[in-house]
Recover the amino acids of this structure.
C-alpha cells in the first residue's frame, strides 16, 4: 500500500503580518541586559532599546508581541492610542 504525501497549499495566514488595530505599544527598558542570553540582547536591539529607561513606540503586531515576550523580564509595556 503506497502512502500519499499531502502537499501544502498556499499560505493564507496573513493575520500575523497585519496590525491588530490603531494600538501602539510603548516599550520601556527597565533592567539591564548584562547577564542575559545573547538572543535576549539581540531582541532588545531589534526593538530599538539600548539604555535603561529608554522608551520606543512600536505598532501592535504579533511579531512585536513575540519580541516583547522574549524580554518580558527586562521591559515594561503600555498601550498608547495612535
Amino acid at each position: 500500500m503506497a502512502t500519499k504525501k499531502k502537499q501544502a497549499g498556499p499560505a493564507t495566514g496573513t493575520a500575523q503580518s497585519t496590525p491588530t488595530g490603531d494600538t501602539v505599544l510603548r516599550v520601556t527598558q527597565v533592567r539591564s541586559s548584562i547577564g542575559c542570553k545573547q538572543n535576549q540582547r539581540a531582541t532588545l536591539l531589534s526593538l530599538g532599546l539600548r539604555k535603561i529607561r529608554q522608551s520606543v513606540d512600536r505598532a501592535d503586531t504579533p511579531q512585536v508581541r513575540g519580541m516583547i515576550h522574549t524580554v518580558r523580564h527586562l521591559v515594561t509595556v503600555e498601550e498608547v492610542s495612535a
Observations:
- The radius of gyration is 18 Å.
- The beta strands are 23-29, 55-59, 75-81.
- The mean pLDDT is 86.
- The chain has two helices and three strands.
